[in-house]
């Protein structure tokens, strides 16, 4: 009989919380789908699980660690004080507490979060990345001559396509300046501007620390988007159901990829995962050109874990049903999995 593991599920909240906050109402809402799915899986697995949601008080975590003494923290906290930039700081704090936790280390989160830095590292290692430039706030906005239209202009550190809309796709210097200024001001963010890569939008899930497992490839299919329109994963393309229906946008398993090409994609993604020092689990977003060139777009450590999202769907197809996926993430976090 293995001793019942004690798991503390750590969430983020959008307002201050208490150590014994009742979250049953939240758990029934769409916003808390991942948290509810994970807690249910922990129950199914027979773990002794408790949860804590934090907003702006790390002392709650310290108290909870003392009172509950978990064997492992299931980390789903990806913001602090409503700021997504602080996910890495929460993880740094967990690293200092010395309690095992699931998902990516602080270093991997920092490198992946900054789209400019991750692309520089990968370009140095000869992985295809779109031509790009980073324009910090306060710097004059000008397009370098070698950057060719069409160009995507987006915040350098946001995720989940936040700050990406159809207006991010620019074809003139005037649009370029306008969009960059808009992101500087409205999002109070530095800008990354990169050449638009025509092709298929692929999402590849991976997990592991030393030995990596790559899941079947998912694709965002743009069914109703006219051929001459840009196919970009905007915020609405990912999260707005009405919008997705109107343009025939669907996330499904990629079809028609030759086995040799799939092997190349898998190898590339493993290299990316290692070069960006990711551990735990991640989703890597790629563009596949009509000539079958693989372009890195971005890496998402600790991607959304809801049962109906790409990562869990791909794991399921690879023979890891949801509770087993959650179990594997925990054992990896504890390093009891001999990768």
First-residue to last-residue Cα separation: 23 Å
Largest beta-sheet characterization: 6 strands, antiparallel
> How many structural domains does the protein architecture include?
3
The shape, in one word, is globular
Total number of helices: 12
Unreliable spans? none
Average pLDDT rating: 92
Q: Considering the protein shown, what is the CATH homologous superfamily of the largest domain?
A: ATP-grasp fold, B domain
In the CATH hierarchy, the third-tier topology of the largest domain is known as D-amino Acid Aminotransferase, Chain A, domain 1
Topology, element by element:
Layout: E1 6-12, H1 24-27, H2 33-44, E2 48-54, H3 59-68, E3 72-75, H4 87-97, H5 106-113, H6 115-124, E4 132-135, E5 151-155, E6 169-170, H7 173-186, E7 191-195, E8 200-208, E9 213-214, E10 218-222, H8 235-239, H9 241-246, E11 249-253, H10 259-275, E12 280-288, E13 294-301, H11 310-317, H12 322-333
Question: How would you explain this protein's 3D organization?
Answer:
The chain is of the alpha+beta class and 339 residues long. Helix content is 35%, strand content 21%. The protein has helices at residues 24-27, 33-44, 59-68, 87-97, 106-113, 115-124, 173-186, 235-239, 241-246, 259-275, 310-317, 322-333; strands at 6-12, 48-54, 72-75, 132-135, 151-155, 169-170, 191-195, 200-208, 213-214, 218-222, 249-253, 280-288, 294-301. The strands form 3 sheets. Strands 8, 9, 10, 11, 12 and 13 form a 6-stranded antiparallel β-sheet that branches. The chain has a 4-stranded antiparallel β-sheet with strand order 4-7-5-6, covered by helices on one side. α2 crosses α12 (322-333) and α4 (87-97) packs antiparallel against α5 (106-113). The two termini are 23 Å apart.
